[in-house]
Amino acid sequence: MGARPQFIKAAAVSSVIRNEFKEQIREKILHTGQHYDPVMSKVFFDELEIPQPDFHFNTGSGLQGEQTANILIQTEKIFESEKPDAVVVYGDTNSTLAGAIAASKMHIPVIHIEAGLRSYRKQMPEEINRILTDHVSSLLCCPTATSIENLKKEGIFHHNEAELNHPAVCFTGDVMFDIFLQRYNGNGYPQNINAGEPFILATLHRASNTDNLINLKNILSAFAQVINAGYDVILPLHPRTRKQLELLNDVPEIKNLLNNSKFKITEPVSYLSMLSLLKHATLVMTDAGGLQKEAFFSKKPCVILRDETEWKELIENNVAVIGGTTTSGIASAFHSALNLKISDKPELYGNGNASLKICEAIVKYFSLR
Ligand code: UD1
């Protein structure tokens, strides 16, 4: 693991390994260092009581290939010395792909948690990471019904007698739902945030939005319209977006927004702080995968700040709206989403025991070999 959402997913699985499978599974944690600022990494380990990593690299940031390659070189050395029976990778980051390549080339079974998701948009580095990781995995743990179907389309089927060339595929549900159910109880606001209600909770960090200044400006202009409609906007900001914002400082419209007291930019927040904000928010606007689902888990409508989502069931069940990246598209999606009523929760992401099912699947995989 190496990036913020992976720490959250690992917290769910790691606690089940420690508490319920300690006789069968021994886990060692490798932190690639992809995320390194304390607010992007340490805070999650402390708050979610994830054991300290057994191995911790200082990979840091870099170009896509450079970062992936650096992680690959270092993980391979650890796998060589530790000789693990299996390597678990989470999600779709560069750390995921690097771990999967290193392990599979050493004939170590790769267990992919959150397998089978597709946005069908290869401009996203995450889409490439997902496809490649799934195709070298031996045990694919799928969070949704759609993800199993996506894998079938690419010729990845379940084999009862699984081995390196014939993977096992199972539906487990989403580990983020597990941890959400365990932790969603906070009432207060995070200490450092002075939230005026009603407010919209927003996040923004996808490369396609931050590195494309037209998209970034469009999205910020949409936030200005949301404020004009009577809402505060709280935006816990990823460091990459903060850097890019400086490039728009001189655009009058953006300058006005940045000076508006109803536009509240904060440091990135911890997992529990995010849940507290979710509890009080009227609606969520985000380009992040995890937060789209957390909005649904907490019965809040969501505007997705992208043209598509790999969590398609949110759209199919009318609990989120695609806003895209134009100001008018986002503003119109915002008004539609305000009217969504998310009272009943269809069980789109399992029933909160995905981590248990994953551990059972791991034990079964090895018992058949
Ligand atoms: C990565 C994942 C993305 C995930 C996101 C969660 C990839 C390709 N992308 O994107 O899927 O949703 O993590 O946050 O793996 N930076 C810091 N401090 C940090 C980390 C990053 O300042 O601790 C800044 C650096 O300027 C860096 C930039 O953020 O260049 C991007 O970081 P990187 O890890 O490459 O990608 P994310 O955008 O975080």
Written account of the structure:
With 369 residues, the chain is an alpha/beta fold. 46% of the residues lie in helices and 12% in strands. It has 16 helices and twelve strands. The protein has a six-stranded parallel sheet, sandwiched between helices. Strands 3-4-5-6 form a four-stranded parallel sheet, with helices on both faces. Helix 1 crosses helix 7 and helix 3 crosses helix 4. 45% of the residues are buried. The mean pLDDT is 95.
Keywords:
single chain; 369 residues; alpha/beta; six-stranded parallel sheet; four-stranded parallel sheet; 12 strands; globular; binds uridine-diphosphate-N-acetylglucosamine
Oligomer: single chain
Q: What structural class should be given to the helix and strand makeup?
A: alpha/beta
Percentage of residues in helical conformation = 40-55%
- Please report the total strand number as a whole number: 12
Largest sheet: 6 strands, parallel
Nearest-integer average pLDDT: 95
Summed up, the helix count is: 16
Taking strands numbered 1, 2, ... along the chain, how are they ordered across the largest sheet?
9-8-7-10-11-12
Shape: globular
Compute the CA-based radius of gyration.
20 Å
Given as residue ranges, the uncertain stretches (5+ residues, pLDDT < 50) are none
